[in-house]
Design a protein that fits this description.
Layout lengths: L3 H23 L5 E2 L4 E2 H4 L9 E5 L5 H8 L3 E6 L2 H10 L7 E3 L12 E7 L2 H4 L2 H11 E12 L1 H5 L1 E2 L4 E2 L12 E3 L5 E3 L3 H10 L3 E6 L13 E2 L4 H4 L3 E7 L2
Parallel strand pairs: 3-4, 3-6, 4-5, 6-7, 9-13
Antiparallel strand pairs: 1-2, 7-14, 8-9, 10-11, 12-14
The structure holds S-adenosylmethionine (SAM).
The site of S-adenosylmethionine (SAM) has 19 residues, from helix 1 and helix 5.
Length: 246
């Protein structure tokens, strides 16, 4: 299924409202992961990027990319949506980096172009992983890493569509989560644990870690209502995969 046109349309439509609502949280300080803004300094997922060739896959307004560029990485920000890329361009700091319009499932880069590919609810949430992960493996050099954060199957399976909130009961089957219908015909993607392992290993990547970011009690979720509010302190809301190409 080709979700590129509808996903591009959706993100172009919502970009302005999305950035208005979320940029203050995403960009509050450098290197914040996910819906609970957990600092990378606590999770140790990305490490030192100085001098590394880095691709942010689905960079949005580039909150991560501009931080890594300022740290001395050679960053490329890729996104499907021209409106999101325009937001990244407006927000770019003194450390300039190139922005590229493209899709995670058809990366416009040669083999061995990057030492690190990463995203935070980016291309690996919005492109079919069985297409996007092999593309990432292709553009990584030997020893290069793919690090990415996505929603957990727990979170998705407990999401009550009618009430628009995450609950403590199973609302959807775990098996068959695969595609999630978003507004206006767009699609996001959600794999089971087993399917992530298959897709990553199938692309020749080695799984080094699966971090389950756990917010402190009282940390708000900036994106979804959860009941109870401290849902993610009790169950894993996100999966932060750390892999490399041997
Ligand atoms: C939730 S944002 C992630 C960016 C940032 N980390 C954030 O949280 O705002 C998702 C981004 O993925 C982009 N996107 C959607 N489909 C994509 C695809 N197939 N390839 C690359 N980027 C895509 C969207 O345009 C959007 O900017």
């Amino acid at each position: 299924m080709d979700s590129i046109p509808a996903n591009r349309r959706l993100w172009n439509q919502i970009s302005s409202a999305y950035q208005h609502e979320h940029d203050p949280q995403i960009g509050a300080t450098p290197r914040l992961w996910g819906m609970y803004s957990i600092p990378d300094a606590h999770l140790h997922a990305l490490g030192d990027v100085t001098g590394k060739r880095v691709l942010e896959l689905g960079c949005g307004a580039g909150q991560w990319s501009r931080a890594l560029a300022a740290e001395g990485a050679t960053v490329v920000g890729l996104d499907l949506s021209e409106a999101q890329l325009a937001a990244a361009s407006r927000a770019m700091g003194a450390a300039r980096y190139p922005l590229v319009q493209g899709a995670a499932e058809q990366l416009p880069f040669a083999a061995d172009s990057f030492d690190l590919v990463f995203c935070d609810f980016g291309g690996l949430s919005w492109a079919p992983p069985h297409l996007a992960v092999p593309q990432v493996a292709r553009v990584l050099g030997r020893g290069g890493r793919l690090v990415f954060n996505v929603a957990s199957p727990w979170f998705e399976a407990c999401y009550d569509e009618a009430a628009s909130r995450v609950t403590t009961t199973l609302q959807k089957d775990y098996f068959g989560l695969h595609t999630i219908a978003e507004d206006d015909g767009a699609t996001s993607y959600q794999l089971t644990y087993g399917d992530w392992v298959k897709v990553l290993r199938g692309a020749g990547l080695i799984i080094d870690d699966l971090i389950e970011p756990r917010p402190e009690l009282g940390t708000p979720n900036g994106y979804n209502e959860t009941d109870p509010p401290d849902w993610a302190h009790r169950w894993p809301a996100e999966l932060l995969w750390v892999t490399h190409k041997p």
